[in-house]
Amino acid sequence: MIRQLRLFLVILPLAAAAACNENEVSGAPAQAVRVATVAAVSDAGYSASSSYTGRVEARLASEPGFEIGGLLASVSGEEGAQVEAGAALARLDTARLTAQRVEALAALEQVRADLVLATATFRRMEDAFEFKGISEQQLDEARQRVAALRAAEDVAAARLERIAVDIEKATLRAPYAGTVVRRYSDPGAVVASGQPIFAFQSNTLPEARIGVSPEASASLVPGENYTLSINDRPVAADLRAVVPRRDEQTRTLDAIFVISDAVAVVRPGDLARLDVERHVAEEGFWVPVSALAEGTRGLWQGLVAEAEGDKHVLARRTLEVLHADERRAFVRGTLAPGDLLVSEGIHRVVAGQVVTVDDVSRLARVDEAGGTEQ
Q1: What is the pTM of this model?
Q2: For labelling alongside 368, which of 21, 56, 216, 261 has CA 20 to 30 A away?
Q3: Interatomic CA distance for residues 204 and 201, integer angstroms
């Protein structure tokens, strides 16, 4: 708004300079110029309204892929399809895994057969040891043989279970109820472990992520309901949280709103706007925008009509604009309550000039009449 204020007021006082030059050349005495003024009235603060824009996001969004690599045999999840949680989206070719399972099952059966024989041998050797038919060393070897085969049986069973898990993982299932947004691979492609096959998002009501300033975030209360503007329509949303971390680029804090208006047509990717109004406690003065002229170092200037006997002389005041809209600005600086600030035509006059104080309505009638008072 301050930038617009600068553009609005960047008018060079050419008419005033020409009038001054003409008076200097002719030597005629300067006549009092009639100016409109407004009395400076102090205020304890102002309300600032700010708009922040963000984007609507799906509540849940992911890019699912297979935990194992392989040849993509079939794809059933088409783009735009809505599926339930656990529904099959794609399958890998499992011929190699099936062969490995047969091999692992045979290995397990062989180990179990060896374990049966080793167990029977150990029992017979226990009986023989009681009659001193074998040595203690031979008995220990038979006992360890049984233990080793039991461990081998566990390994073979675990291998068989791992292959069964891989076969189950060869079917890619929907992690939750949602919609297939995009498909990245087609049947016949060889995919790697973890490679995304789909872009997937939930079907629940989406969220809006809006970056707000730290000052505005202080007025937001999690759990409260707010009105967002999405597709030029008001949409009710509950504030879920304000993320306590600044964005590295925008230096804002992310406010996350859960869309609570089930009737509104809101899609991920839509722009969402939040209007935040906050009160700023600051001593200052409300002045018309037309009463300001741009100064130096980011400051502004105004002219005050100071009474000197039966006349008024203009004096410059340095002001800082704290807030502004199309009509008025909230400023602080070298003003005092009751000062008569020139409210219009500030570029027609200069500091030290003798003026006649008028009100705004009368000046408007003079301007409408082409500069002649009616």
Answers
A1: 0.60
A2: 21
A3: 9
Contact partners, residue 13, CB within 8 Å, separation at least 6: 347, 348, 350
Average of per-residue pLDDT values in the chain: 83
- Amino acid found at 239: L
30 token code pair: 């300067």
Which of 28-37, 184-193, 363-372 has the least mean pLDDT? 363-372
Distance between CA atoms of residues 219 and 234, nearest Å: 20
Distance separating alpha carbons of residues 327 and 199, to the nearest angstrom: 49
Q: What is the DSSP string of 61-124?
A: EE--B-SS-EEEEEE---TT-EE-TT-EEEEE--HHHHHHHHHHHHHHHHHHHHHHHHHHHHHH
The whole-angstrom separation of Cα 354 and Cα 305 is 9
**Hey, CA dihedral for 350, 353, 357, 361, is it positive or negative?**
negative
CA 237/CA 230 separation, integer angstroms: 11
Phi, psi of 178 (to 5 degrees): -170, -160
